[in-house]
Write a structure and sequence with these properties.
Length: about 300
Amino acid sequence: MIGTKANKILCIVFIVTILTTQAQTDYKADVHLVLLAGQSNMVGAGNYDELSSVDKKRIENISDRVFLSYNGKALKPLSYFNNKPSKKYNFTKRFGPELFIGLTLAEANPNQKYVLVKRALGGTSLYGAWSPEWSAEKSNAVEMDAQRKKIKLYELHLKDIHKTLEQLKSQGKSFKIIGLTWMQGEKDTNSELAAKNYRENLENLINHYRKDLNTSKLPFIIGQVNVLPRKYKPGVDFIRNAQIEVGSLDERNTMIKTSKESPWNDFPKHLDNTHYNTIGQKRLGEAFAKSLIEKIKLN
């Protein structure tokens, strides 16, 4: 009898475990998570005050069910973040692609809640700061200052994600990571070493995210870089071609194609010809969201 009771208990525990796992991998989960990673165009240089009153109202209407954690900070309703005015960006309310990723997804799924977990830092390389196999040697070879030479962005992003997941678990909420959006590569165009290794490094990054998050079917959406050549002239073509190749390796990968040169009519930029302006950030966020929606259909 004791053995029978023990078997029944084990059976119940097994069933509960299965049901819990199913709840956390179900697209009907309480919360859908979107991961965002990259450098300055993922940080974003959109000016919230330039958005129309209609767009601001749309954002307000979904802010009670779309939340953002940015660089390890606590979750807060989706909105702009504070910016210290400068000669380059003389405005106080700044946003990146997260704003219209969250808005587009939420309007497409009116009953769904979303959490966006973003880690981004301008001027950082996939070869260095973003490498899942970070080393001081690699970082020193490509990063430009003391902060960037020491920071391990992939590791920090994983910590951000797990912290958020633990918070959701503590609240008894089921969840599903529905995809990752990647806007990075501008820095790697400036170095022959980084540019020529970008394809291998990007594929490795995707594999690490899928393995470390135990999400083998994780959609990975790549924003194609389109800066003007600078220190290493062939670098832009190396990175753009690498992103095309990696974007077509797997049916769950895709790439958002961008124009190669000015006047950047698809995703408009600031006068620096590098960073997307308000319209460019809006379109980038919408494009990321639409790609995520398409990839979700594969599961």
